[in-house]
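DM from R.C. (forwarded with permission)

"hey, sorry to bug you on a friday — could you get me a structure for this? deadline for the figure draft is monday and I only need the backbone to look sensible"
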Amino acid sequence: MHELTIASSMIDLASDHASRNGSARVTGMHVRLGVMCGIARSLYFCFGPATRGTLCEGAKLHIEEVPLTIFCEHCAEARSPISLSNLRCPDCGRPSRKVLSGREMELTHIELEEKAPHPALAPVGQTLQ
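My reply, with the result:
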């Protein structure tokens, strides 16, 4: 299941980012997935279990699905084909060789929780509860 590998890679990236920035944990991840990837549902399914024991445990996964668009050379315009399996212009019916969007797989945003200040590092005269 390559969705688990993708989830693990995202978790590794986010955990590394959190560590480098001194964060206690990752609270959320935002991903852009093109509809042609076809993994959004599977990624949601395996994300939670894949985060166990990491800085991402309990993080929310936010997926933005990017629609499929093609460029029709005959019409000289971007179009949305009728289906994912038929990359023809819906207006003129000619096949397209250029996919403009729908194949994306991007980790776009990582939400971090800041670490609580260590009591020994509190300024003199300030009380911590």
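R.C.: lifesaver. Residues 117 and 123 are 10 Å apart (CA to CA).
me: no worries. Residues 121-129 have pLDDT under 50 and may be disordered.
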